[in-house]
Amino acid sequence: MRAVKCAIALSLLVLFFFTNSLFAADVAKIGVIDLQKILESSNSGKSIQAELKTQKDKMESDLKQKGSEIETIGKRLERESMVMSKEMREDKEREQRIKINDFKSLQKKYRSDLQKFEVQLMNQLQKDIKELVDDIGKKGGYLLIINKYSVLYAPGSIDLTDSLIKKLNAKTGKRKKK
Q1: Given 20, 77, 111, 136, which is the most exposed site by the fewest CB atoms within 10 A?
Q2: Tell me: the pLDDT tens digits for 120-153?
């Protein structure tokens, strides 16, 4: 009888230790990054914004010039329409319509080109961020690293944005020096 009591006590003791170790498993590490902050604060993000602004300004100045040419033709047509022959006036009106259509086509082309350029630059930035996030995740033992804007609540202690910006600046700084 005594042996049975010892066996039951020993098995309860073993069961107690094993169940405690199951409940004491590591807590999953989760990290959060703020992509908008990276775009606004990192050297790469600032560079992308500057390149896009330069490209946009160049396109806008070209469109402004084309718009002023159309205005000039319209004003000249208004002034001289009374003294022009019907054929000449129709030619000038047709020329104005062609210029307006060319302007609209160029405007659409520039918008498309700017979007393609932005996508190209953003894809490179995302690729760089992905590499760094993978590295941070593996080295830091994170189970999950997600974008801040898809999370409803996250304590600041799991925000990895600042460390990611530092690493991204270092990475792009090395690339520019080459």
Answers
A1: 20
A2: 999 999 999 899 988 888 888 888 888 888 776 7
